[in-house]
Automatic annotation (TrEMBL):
It comes from Pseudovibrio japonicus. This is Glycine radical enzyme activase. PROSITE patterns: 4FE4S_FER_1, 4FE4S_FER_2, RADICAL_ACTIVATING, RADICAL_SAM. Belongs to the organic radical-activating enzymes family. PANTHER family: GLYCYL-RADICAL ENZYME ACTIVATING ENZYME YJJW-RELATED, PYRUVATE FORMATE-LYASE-ACTIVATING ENZYME. Coiled coil: none annotated. Pfam families: Radical_SAM.
């Protein structure tokens, strides 16, 4: 059987902010949202091999062979000019990983790891790879004690979640907004599936953490915070809720003109949520 390959934009061998403990993180290329607030917009789309980025690459790290863009990381200077010029928010600097490639990486770094997290982009766009990878980890005597987590925007339909949850230990899920039109403006998609995903994951015992991005005058309004409080409280008032604060780092386009979220306002909202009964509200360690 041919196992699927993953299109990977970045690998972090160790991270302490992408799930519990120390984790290897695979950032998978491609997303089904197009959030103006995204701080990694070049992870949104898959390259269509148009070739527009080749002329800006001064090192020859990008070439086109038989109509396909090829990337040579050994001579890339990481200037990111190719990312800046891409007209569709794609990334030519991707690498195809097989399940065996990732197992080998985990094996090399295992003494320092508690698990692996697949992130994005939107990781679940490459669901077949995730299922194959997590299944292989759990069947591997040397690696099976590593936990397998997904960082997701929650747009995956219920039936698809059910195919991956048996081999998944936990999910970190983003909720962008509760009011429907606001969610559509902030992501280009409805939030119905996202809210259903949160409930489904919670019922399955796999919702490790909810994340909520505070954006001034958009998602920090009294109405949105009341809905956030009500939604989390209805699941479990002890559920970890991580508040993130909108900043300009990496953001392109109209959202560069949006105000950034300041620490005192985040702390005030966190206090309000705690006063409303949520006991596990986490605020950002840094604001950049
Ligand atoms: S990364 Fe963007 S500019 Fe470069 S070939 Fe792909 S689609 Fe074209
Ligand atoms: S980041 Fe690398 S591939 Fe992209 S333009 Fe610069 S040298 Fe070329």
């Amino acid at each position: 059987m041919n196992l699927p390959l993953a299109t990977v934009s970045k690998v972090l061998k160790f991270s302490c902010v992408d799930g519990p403990g120390s984790r290897l993180v695979l950032f998978l290329q491609g997303c089904n949202f197009a959030c103006p607030s995204c701080h990694n917009p070049h992870t949104m789309k898959l390259c269509n091999d148009c070739g527009d980025c080749l002329p800006v690459c001064s090192t020859g790290a990008l070439t086109i062979v038989q109509g396909k863009v090829l990337y040579d990381p050994s001579i890339c200077e990481h200037c990111d000019k190719c990312l800046d010029i891409c007209p569709i928010n794609a990334n030519p600097k991707v690498t195809q990983y097989s399940v065996d490639n990732v197992l080998a990486l985990l094996d090399q770094n295992k003494p320092f790891l508690n698990g692996i997290t697949v992130s994005g982009g939107e990781a679940t766009m490459q669901l077949k790879f995730i299922i194959a990878l997590f299944t292989a980890i759990k069947a591997n005597d040397k690696l099976k004690d590593l936990t397998c987590f997904i960082d997701s925007n929650g747009y995956l339909p219920e039936a698809a979640w059910k195919t991956v949850l048996p081999v998944t230990d936990g999910v970190m899920l983003d909720i962008k907004a509760f009011e429907g039109d606001l969610h559509s403006q902030l992501t280009t998609r409805s939030n119905e599936r996202v809210l259903s995903s949160a409930r489904l994951l919670f019922e399955a015992g796999k919702l490790h953490e909810l994340r909520y991005l505070l954006i001034p005058e958009r998602t920090d309004t009294a109405k949105e915070i009341a809905e956030l409080s009500r939604f989390v409280g209805a699941l479990d008032s002890n559920l970890p809720l991580r508040l993130n604060a909108f900043q300009h780092h990496g953001v392109q386009g109209e959202a560069r003109n949006w105000p950034t979220m300041k620490q005192p306002d985040v702390e005030r909202i966190a206090q309000d949520l705690r006063a409303a009964g949520l006991s596990n509200v986490v605020t950002p360690a840094v604001y950049i």
